[in-house]
Amino acid sequence: MSTDPRDVLELIERSDASGVVHTQPIAARQPVEVPLPADVPEVVRGRLQLQGITTLWSHQATVRTLAHAGTNVILATGTASGKSLAYQLPIIERTVADPQAVTVYIAPTKALAYDQLRQIRGYKLPQIRAAVIDGDTPAAEREAIRRTANVILTNPDLLHHAVLGQHRAWANVLHRLAFVVVDEAHVARGVFGSHVALVLARLKRAAQRYSATPTWLLASATIGNPAEHATRLVGSDVVAVTNDGSPRGPLRLALWQVPRDDDGRAVHSVTREAGMMLAEFVAAGIQTLVFASSRRGAEAIALIAKERLDGQRDDGLLLSEMIAAYRAGLLPQERRSVEAGLRDGTLRGVAATEALELGIDISGLDAVILAGWPGTSAAFWQRVGRAGRRAGAAAAVFIGQEDPLDQYLLNHPRELLERPAEDAIIDPSNRYILRGHLHCACYEFPMTAAEAADTFGGKAPAALAVGVTDNVLRLRSDKHYWTSRERPSAAVDLRSSGGATVRIVDSATGAIIGDVDEPRAHQQVHTGAHYVHQGRALTVQQLDLGQRVALVEDRTDTATTTRPRSDTNISIDTVTLRHEHDGFALSYGSVDVTTRVTGYDVIRIGANDVVDRCALELPDIRLSTMAVWYELTDDDLECGGVTPPVLPGALHAAEHAAIGVLGLIAMCDRWDIGGLSTPRHAQTAQPTVFIYDGYPGGAGLAERSFQRFGEHIALTHTTIGDCPCHHGCPSCIQSPKCGNGNDPLDKSGALRVLELVRSHAHELPGFHRAATTT
Known about the structure:
This protein has 774 residues and is an alpha/beta fold. It contains 25 helices and 33 strands. The strands form seven sheets. It has a seven-stranded mixed beta sheet with strand order 1-11-18-17-12-16-15, sandwiched between helices. The chain has a seven-stranded parallel beta sheet with strand order 6-7-5-8-9-4-10, sandwiched between helices. Strands 27, 28, 29, 30, 31, 32 and 33 form a seven-stranded antiparallel beta sheet that branches. The C terminus is likely disordered.
């Protein structure tokens, strides 16, 4: 069989079970090279040549020039474009010239910092004393790093919890700070990105107190607003470099739909399709990476591929042992084993979540499979770009989920292939996020209201005043002081959407096999939930929220899975923006969401049949966030053919589909968003549909829907209308996260509701501010 991945993909496309709906050849790209500049120090030039680097690509040379001039820069180019060398080279040159100069490198994960450490140490320059410091670094080792290292690799969490609150111990490092590198800057978006921006503002403030003004170097995947995003992250002007001078080999890209029955429904899951395709590539000798949208999906895909290849060998080696899963929650030794296997080729197939991208600098694979839309065009092309060894040929497949957004893109390939990268959205002024970081800043250095506004934005003085009212801050001589002996950083979690971490423990051995945030624990590891870990089928014996532990045991039944049921209520707090037209109203504002997981269904995999229903008693989960909502009148709906018996299912279906396609206009996926529809809301007294951000204080997603509401509703209507199913399916109106088991739903009624909404949206007047509290 040919070892060209494109030929292997073509053979898969010709099979009887083919689901290919579109293929796109992507031409090779020739490199734009420039000679190594003459002023590169000879010792550095020699080390580069030992690694085979005799020229730079054009974007690398541009970053070097800007960095030497002290200009803040973000490099936003494709995967495997040499971004690491682009920022490493000016750092290495500066450190060789002045070993007292310090660089702080910030990665979103510990694993990526260690991967960069391996690269930097590979230059074998004695002037560079590089070290990783993170939460696992012993105290004695931290002290040695503070005294001796001049390239310190870390993560935002360590800066937040350990460095800034103990800045006096780090004074010598902060005083000598020359560069700050922010890697994978596109990951710093949404709530996590807002936290990172505030941590960086505190780092910048601390450096200024110790007389340092570092140059900021950022690296990012391609996004729509690199300069704007970087500027908001670091609080200073940043220049974007986006012209990619690196080479790329030819690529065959296939868009793939799971085969369907006569009613337009998928005959099996995307997980199964991806697992079978992974097995085909592995059997052909093609090193392949599958990106799954969830931990459970990654585990299941690896398991399906292993089972399909059971007993098959290549050069005496079992193919099933050359496949693994990689996801968040694995123990460090499990992660390192998979990472090493990818590098040395002993692993031929890996099914992973995005955790792998943030664990190692991966590129040069033969093929990539995307089991579902990754949420954004930027992420799509970044993952596709993982396939290809410099000028070598590669293959990539996008398998669409039974999801409105995925199906829209499969049915409109030009929309997928030609749409620009989305903007990264952060909101450091989110009151829930800002307040904690202001407390940390006052603990680090007492702060005036004017300094707070200058450093943290216009909403900071009011947040300081709230801190004084709550007696956590004390105002004295215009400065705000932290009043407690406890460090405020302990109360600010950069990663969690709220709540503590629940550990997943093997009841037979006592081994910790993973963890999950408490709000997700209600959904994922409730008592009775089915859970998968590295191919092991497990059942949750007990979720103990008091002890924050989920005890699991092995199960033999792998033919079923579980789906939680929940009830949600929304109360409107404040209406910030509002449109009205002929009885129709569109609003944006703050809401309070209360959700309770009431039970779960046991479902037969593949058939989706409910074989058992179980009740649970769990506490409420409360969320204060931002939402967009629209209200229709009973008369309008009656005239549009939406009668009272149809109304609940019509609104519910319209809500599901709108959540599913919001990712086309905002950098998110459906798991970042929640929704509620009701034929009569207590406060609006009208049939109402809500879409809300799934994070405290909001993440800018509902606001984006409000700003582009006409486009959002048109996409929703098209997605439902284009779906070939008769009564509604996961490709249009069913949702995998529906707490009501996708009941009731009415496809034709949803189309009529959306037609009414579109008719009003065309007539809405310009935005006007409202100060209404309902």
